[in-house]
Structures are given as C-alpha cells and as structure tokens.
Amino acid sequence: MKKLVSLLLALTMILSMAVIANAEDEPVTLKVLWWGSQTRHDTTTALCKLYEETHPNVKIEIDYAAWSDYWTKLATQVSGDTLPDVIQMDYGYLTQYAENGVLANLDEYIAAGRMDVSNAAESIIASGKWNGSVYAIPTGTNALVLMYNPALVEGYDVPTYMTYEEYIDLCKQLYADKGLTENYLAGADMNRLRFYVRNYGYELYNEDQTALGFTDAQLIADQFEYVGTSIKEGWGLNPAKSVAADTFSSITAGDTWAVLHWTNELNATETGNGVSLQMVALPAADDAVRPATFFKPSMFWSVAEKSQVKDAAVDFINFYINDLRTYEICGTDRGFPISSVVLEALTPGFSEQNQKIAAILNDMAATGNTSPIMPSDPTASAEVSDLYGDYIEKIQYGQITDYKAAAEEFMEKANELLSAGK
C-alpha cells in the first residue's frame, strides 16, 4: 500500500511538473509599468528585451511615466480595469494599493521558492509587507541624502553629519560669499517634516494612522519658519527659479549647491547636471534624541491581483532581483541589490558613482546614524501631503507669515483628513 501511495505521489509530481513546463511554453504577454527618468526607461527597456530573449514564449509590453504623472496614470488604470501585470510600487503608496485589493499576495510564491528571497535580509522583505503578508518585493535599498556640487563649495567644510544650526550657518555663509542657494529647507515637503519629527522620537502618523504622530504644532511651525526664513534671507532657492524635480536638474537652478535626493538617483542627477556630486547625511535637529535617517526600499515590484499571468509576473520579478545581468544593465538606479549573493558579485566592479553610494550608506550604518524605517503611510497621506504643499507654497510666496497659527491650522485639517480616510 505504501509503495502504491508513493508511486501515485511520484506520478502526481511528474504530471504537475509537466503541466508547469507546458504552461511555461505557452505564449504569454506580460505588461510592465514603471516610473523614472529617461535613463531608467532606456535600461529597463533593455532588461525587458533580455528577459524576452531568455524566455522566448514571453512578450513584454512596456509602459512608463514620470513620477509626477505616474500615480494619476495608475489610478486611471485601476478605475478602467486595465492594470499591467507588473507594477512598480512606492513605499508611500503600498498600504493604499494593498488594502484596496489591487496587489497580489506573494506569500505562496515565496514559500514555494518561485520568488527567491533567501539571500535577502528579512528586514528588507518585511518592508514590502501589509497586514502581515508580502505584497511588494524591494528592488534595492537607499537613503535620502543631501547631494551637493563640491566645485561650488571648494574651500568650505561640508561635514557628513550636521545639525540644523550648522547647516543653516553654512548656507548663510555660502550665500553671503558666493550667492549660492540651497533647496533642502527652502523646498520643504512632508519628507522634511517626517525627518524632523523622527529626530524627536515621533513618526509622521500615529500607529492606527488616524492622525499625525505628534501633538506639538511647534514642530510643524519650525519647518514653516525654515522655509520662510530661507526665502526671505536669500539663501534658500526661490520657488520662481525652481525646476521640476523629476528633471534632476534643480541642483543647477539659481546656483543651487545642495538638494534632496535618494542615493539611487546619483547617476541620473550627475548625468542630468553634467557635474560630479558628493553626498552627506541630512541635517539633524540640534537636540535630536535619535537619527532621523532610515534605509528605505528604493522602490518595489508588485503583481496585480487581477493579472491573468501571475506566474510570469512573479518570474519576471524573481529574474530582476536574482540575475546578475539585471544590474549589469540597470546598474543600481533602483537601489543596491537586495540579494547578498548578487551584491557580493557586483562590488568589485562598482563604478565611481556606486562607490560613493556604498561609502555613505556604509558610513551611516557603521556610525549608527540610522533608525528603523517607519510603517508605510496611510491611504489619506497623499491628501495630507498635498495640503502641506499648499501651505509651503503660500509661505514661499510670503502669503503666510504667522507660522505657529498656520501650523495649528494645518494640523487640525490633516487630522481630519486622516480620521476620515481611515
């Protein structure tokens, strides 16, 4: 009897493998969507062609957009039930799309080894979880940093780690001596506020995501004041001279010497500006109780829940994170590889740019200048971010000067949006 059962099990496994093999031979059309610069578009297109060459039964239809248009495009596709199979996803939008049933649960593929994350740190994979399950696979890791043009600030000390006071003093000195401006504090958005409150042990949103994660409006007023003061005194980039962030050229606008970017954007930023850049950590609050910086998945790949070719979509993502040729073609534009095996193999051949990225990330880790990443943002965070942007714009143009009153008003409205959004 035992022999019969074993034989039946063996036959079942053989038949199952045959079905999978036959399915993998069947023609498949795989739709892939991403955002990014022209450089990312070119390299990802080349990667898709390589995948087609190594998977003759697969035809990839590519689609992409700039960051500023991407989420509108994706929302339209959700509404029209025309989602692609593979979706580039951002940490800030993960909760929204996972809880609304747009993304596929990838747990079973990981358990079966079809999505091989065995060489990735658990903390990295956990960043793609929602409600305890994996809905997104990180393409790599990176951190927000200040990128600056060393040629513009030659002779001036730019420490890797600065307090806000030290950073502002340097900004004022560079403006007085050379007319240079910065675009970190002057171009403030919710990320600047996030980093500031994290310095004091808070998160941007509370645990159940029904309100902001702090109650002191002065923290917001501080950021409003940084913006207003930088524009008024001239050392911050005037918004009238700003250019779109997704062109990666804001570092040359109005003799700007420092801007906020992710480490994985170094290549595109240098290429777009035609300059060699350096990176330092973001300024920290003078009385900070913890580092604000965190290592973030640069972005994710997700699979659409309604995809009719989930197996092929999973295989494409698995190919991306585990095949050396991915990074030989795309470099580290989407972050450093999450696979320790891939990273170890690539390190000896890193470019000068990647060596600079590795240096700042390794130094942050070695010196303890990072803290754990926060939970993904709530669904209503996009509305809160837009609201914050409205206040910042009015401050930049001098329409708001009572920063504390504006901060209290913003906090009340933001909490209403978050409470209603939940």
Explain what the structure shows.
By secondary structure, the protein is of the alpha/beta class. Helix content is 47%, strand content 13%. The chain is built from 16 helices and eleven strands. The strands form three sheets. A five-stranded mixed beta sheet has the order 2-1-3-11-6. It has a four-stranded mixed beta sheet with strand order 8-9-7-10, with helices on both faces. Strands 4-5 form a two-stranded antiparallel ribbon.
* Major sheet characteristics: 5 strands, mixed
How much helix, percentage-wise, in residues? Answer: 40-55%
Amino-to-carboxy terminus distance: 57 Å
Q: What is the helix/strand order?
A: HEHEHEHHHEEEEHEHHEHEEHHHHHH
Number of strands: 11
Proportion of residues in β-strands:
5-15%
Morphology: globular
Kindly report the spatial arrangement of strands forming the biggest sheet.
2-1-3-11-6
Q: Structural class of the secondary structure composition?
A: alpha/beta
Tell me, rounded to a whole number, the average pLDDT.
88
Q: Segments where pLDDT lies below 50 for 5+ residues?
A: 1-23, 243-248
Number of helices: 16
Question: Which value, in Å, is the CA radius of gyration?
Answer: 23 Å
Note the topology.
Layout: H1 2-25, E1 28-35, H2 38-54, E2 58-65, H3 67-79, E3 86-89, H4 91-99, H5 107-111, H6 122-126, E4 129-130, E5 133-134, E6 137-142, E7 144-148, H7 164-178, E8 181-182, H8 190-199, H9 218-233, E9 256-262, H10 266-273, E10 278-280, E11 296-303, H11 310-322, H12 324-330, H13 340-346, H14 352-366, H15 381-396, H16 403-421
Parallel strand pairs: 1-2, 1-3, 8-9
Antiparallel strand pairs: 3-11, 4-5, 6-11, 7-9, 7-10
